[in-house]
Amino acid sequence: MSDETAAPAPPGSAGPPPSKRPKKAPEAGEEAPFSLVELADRGAKAALGPFAELGMLARTLYETIFWLLRPPYRFRLLVEQLEFIGVGSIFLVTLTGFFVGAVLGLQLVDGFRQFGAENQTGAVVGIAMAREMGPVFTALMVSSRAGSAMTTELGSMRVSDQINALVVLAVNPVQYLIVPRVLAGVIAVPILTVLFNVVGMTGAYLLCVEVLGIDPGIFLGRMQWLVDWPDVRQGLIKAAIFGGTVSLIACRQGFHATGGAAGVGRATNRSVVHNAIAILVLDYLITAIILGQGLF
To answer: Can you tell me the mean pLDDT for 213-221?
Structure first.
């Protein structure tokens, strides 16, 4: 036997030192451990991701405004998008507005009756619907229906090279695809907000007067006394900004979608989530700016 042949380890021996033991390969379905460099890279991407997304949105907004002011002006595409965003969302906005107003009236009457102030229900419903609930709920409904559809449509066009075909045909894709959708969102969402407010106040009136026994004259009188044009104007300003934001985020996600059908699905998911967050954040910022407090 050769001298180089390793002798068997004696009983009770610990075997070779840990540094010389072979590393265990990861089993099937088990991820390999990350190194510190990989962890740092993932952490940096997670921290800088929101800023990169804001940068892409700012670039998309700049290109949208730039091509909005340049001919040719495609009014047919604008009308088509107004029909899709506005007319197509009427049923959803109407249904949501009626039940939101009814629930709001029910909760307010139940709370105000504890200290004998149920006659103020009409005024509070009117202010809440005009300032906050109308524009926020309308934008959320438009985002869930029209925004997701816009992302899916543009994402499918991107992964199937239809957007590249527009470039080959010397048609700017931002002017042809994004500008009509963003402009239609700015126009349609305030109109839908007015519809939401009217239907919501109607739902609150029917529940409070016909079911809960509130005097109709007092309900309408308090509403007319406290709800003024500045309240409605505040809601319409929010609705216009929300409409443009919803369309812009939806178009940005779809326009830059990658990864085939799965990538389009992920882009649609991001579109709905980002729109919901943007609506709520913008709602606070706009309210604080209009009221002159809450920022600093």
So the answer is: 88
Whether the pLDDT of residue 41 is over 60: the answer is yes
Q: Tell me what pLDDT residue 116 has.
A: 82
Q: Peptide bond before 135: cis, by omega within 30 degrees of 0?
A: no
Query: What is d(CA 255, CA 186) in angstroms, rounded to the nearest whole number?
Result: 19
Contacts of residue 21, defined as CB under 8 A and 6 or more positions apart, other chains included, come to 15
Encoding tokens for residue 200? 């919501």
Whole-angstrom distance, CA of residue 6 vs CA of residue 70:
83
Contact between 89 and 141 under an 8 Å Cβ cutoff? The reply is yes
> Is the distance from CB of 150 to CB of 254 less than 8 angstroms?
yes
Taking CA atoms, 37 is separated from 33, 47, 48, 80, 179, in Å, by: 12, 15, 16, 50, 42
Pairwise CA distance, residues 239 & 139, whole Å? 7
Ranges of beta strands (E only) in 129-256 are none
pLDDT category at 212 given cuts 50, 70, 90 is confident
With contact defined as beta carbons under 8 Å apart, do 283 and 275 qualify? no
CA-nearest of 126, 133, 149 to 238 is 133
Determine contact, residues 177/163, Cβ cutoff 8 Å.
Answer: yes
Question: Which whole-number Å values give the CA distances from 93 to 18, 193, 221, in the listed order?
Answer: 67, 8, 26
Which of 294, 254, 295 shows the shortest CA–CA distance to 274? 254
Mean pLDDT within 49-75: 90
Chain-centroid distance, C-alpha 92: 16
Residue written as token pair 């699905």 = 265
User: Where in the chain are the domains?
Assistant: 75-291
